[in-house]
User: Fold these one by one.
Assistant:
Number 1:
Amino acid sequence: MDSPINPLLLKPDLIVLQNLLQDRRNGIHTQDPANSLAPHNDQSSMQALDEVHNETTVFTSWDLKDLPAGKGFRAEILRKYIAWAQGIVRNPVDVVFLTHTILYLSTSVPSAAFLYYHFTWAHGIFHCLLQLSYCGSFTLMLHNHIHNNGLLKKRYAWFDDTWPYILEPLMGHTWDSYYYHHVKHHHVEGNGPDDLSSTIRYQRDELSHFLMYVGRFITFIWIELPLYFVRKRKYGLAFKAAASEMASYLFIYLAAGRNFYSTLFVLIIPLFLMRIGLMVGNYGQHALVDDVDPDSDFRSSITLIDVPSNRHCFNDGWHTSHHLNPLRHWKDHPRAFLKAKKEYTNGGALVFQNIDYLMMTYRILAKDYLFLADCVVPIGDQIGMSKQELADLLRTKTRRFSEEEIQEKYYKGRKT
């Protein structure tokens, strides 16, 4: 029985999800050219994706079709805003990035500044809650920024280079650390043995291991990341990563010396919340690792469809697609998935619906594999498996790897 489909689902998610569910109903285990149903299903789905691919995104909560249109005042203001914004953003469909930048600069910055001018506990708590509501969308906007060397056209490079340094500390990021850790480290190692945020050495359905995983990152990443670059003989990156981290801590220290309580709510609490959130999210993204071929992007990461993060966090659920091509535009993930569906199927990839990374982490720690099995959108050999069989399959993918297994699965046959 198919799980209910969220009515607020993004249209591309809906198209891909319906495509996979149709495969399931037809019992299509592989993309066999002899099966007339599979090509027809994929062709019609790709055509539908092409029709919505170039639609401009202005807000995360509403699609373009839901916004005012016609000759009214609101529609005219919206058209002028879109035209103006498309002259600034690098990709005309990415008006939403300018929308969010304006939102954060016009709310977070004044709120933080006023806390230093006149601190109250109520305002401090409100400010933290505001930043918490922003942090997901901001981080994934920053994610697009660091992978693509900016979001705006070249003539606005000065602003494109400046806004992250203003907003990063307010959202819980230290300056440039996300870039050095995520782009220059995580995507190089791909959850492998040398990845400082790798999950493979942890029993991923044990709370104690999860706490060690998060605790290690919060406590030691400031020194472990520069040392990683030193081991890799990337001394320039080691210096830059250490310098940016120390500069951020110095800034927080000086701000706290001026007004501790304001700094607690503006900089310190967001820093701890963000680092916990990053690790909880990364844990969910890479908790299910295949015990046969863990070095495969298809088998060490997952794809989430029908989740709020795809709407509000720029298709963050398409994580396998992102690892396959980190430079892929966020709107291209659904089409790329459908084009590579045979590779996903043959690669034993995992696709889920109606569950986000935070809930994925929680359900794994709760060992609630039957719940997770209900969220699986089966592809390939998974089609026809019972709920219990899917649950048993997922359980095998949370097992801790021994050092001997790591040597065997990651290093055997490699030149040293």
Number 2:
Amino acid sequence: MAEITAVPDKPGQPPALSAPLLAQAASQSIVREQIITPFDVSGGVDETGKVVAINYDKLIDTFGSKKIDQALLERFEKVTGHKPHRLMRRGMVFSHRDLDLILDKYEKGNHLFLYTGRGPSSDSMHVGHSIPFEFTKYLQEVFNVPLVIMLTDDEKFFHAPKLSLEDCHKFALQNAIDIIAIGFDVKKTFIFIDTDFVDGGHGGAFNKNVRLIGKRTTINQIKGTFGFGDSNNIAEFGFPAMQSATAFATSFPFIFGTNTKQVAKIPCLIPCAIDQDPYFRQCRDNASKLGFVKPALIHAVFLPSLRGAETKMSASDPDSSIYLSDTDKQIAKKIGNAFSGGQDSRELHRQLGGRTAVDIPFQYLKFFLEDDAALEGIRVRYESGDMESGELKKLCAGVLQEYVGAFRKRRAVITGEVRDLFLRPRGLEWGDRKAEAEMREREREIERLEARLAELRAA
């Protein structure tokens, strides 16, 4: 058996623990820490040799972010006037950097914008990819602000030895249609593919910021953050500056204007999965030195693999994922084979109940079932042993079939012309932030007066 070492799983990528290596480590009872990078995600191995699920509380400590607690959720609802998204309510969006400051600025009527992205590694996205975009759409509607979506075909080309640049660009074009089908507002959304935008006629300001950030970033910083070594290609070392540049409003003068002194003050909120945080730690370190506002982040957990909670869905592993192009029959089959938290026998299950913490169909319901009361009812029945694994899997398959089916219908009407409109550099609509803030303050004042009147009547 091959020795487990820190050799990368793929050429040009940082050291990682892939699923086969984790299994090997488990069989040898070798303790390994969890691995969370932009290039690899896997749970660790404990002292008994057991492969364990990702510990998100530990990630908060390791990365130095802050937990989204009940007080912040209440402030979010008070400031925005919107109920927190189900992912926020259930702790699936769990961590942040400076979300509290974004709420302060929003409450005062200041402008902000959203930024998220996708590394196109396949021609169809899976439901794990759709979750961050669905959440981003929610934030766009709540804050009523512009959104920039970056498709990093160049990054995937740099990191994946078997993919050509043409492959990655083709995937980006297909993924753009998938993203649009989530339901984004074309009047407020700009999507760009790196190789098209950077090499096109509108990338001048963007490229300027790439150079400014690049000059501020050392090789040692990149090595320390990403685990790169001497075998990584030079393009990989340079790419973090590109991903950072998108977080600054001055990179897009056709959206935000050419008054760079004022535009540089516009803050950015980045909803993303937690594995993307290393990119933006570098970005935040350099922002103030360049006269920019540090971007804020809001982190989501990973949708776990069908195989178990030790790793996330992977587009390169069809058996671990449910694709947005899957048929109802394929979804039912995959959920039927998903890792279960049920007991080994019907008798034991009725006696001990199901283990929702490790049951993949239940975990998927936490992501996709909107009704909190219905989800709690399912949890109680399954954990008490009243609901068996087969029934739970059938419920989960039905929810995902409805979710994916609705997506397929929306995607079917997205034409190449619609995609090209989203990809065209242009001005985007801005809400009147000052007027919105004043209106919300008037509404809160009315609520305070009504509450005071109620108290006086009761006295």
Number 3:
Amino acid sequence: MSRPSPLAISVGSVRRLLKEETTYRTELTNQEARLRRWESEGDGEDDETTGNREWAIKQEKQGIQETKAIFGPLRDKLLSAVAGLEDLLSSKQAEQLSEDEVMEARELIMRAKAG
């Protein structure tokens, strides 16, 4: 089995980081929806149920903060990977790449910078 090219490694890295960012954004959306639902519920509950709901709300708020904290370092990693990919595309090695590889790399760069 041949070793993957530097371009394949860079493209794979950017693709993985974009997917990871999408996954965390989806998780944040789900967490915020659960929090809104739990905060809007609760009329006519007994003390034990209210205590459980309040604990769940507190835990969900903590989870939301932890998820939000991931975005800064993840964005830094993504931008670093994009910079490496851009360097690779601007190097002499880029002349040896197929048009499809170059187009895929540029598409990923645009997606990463748009996010």
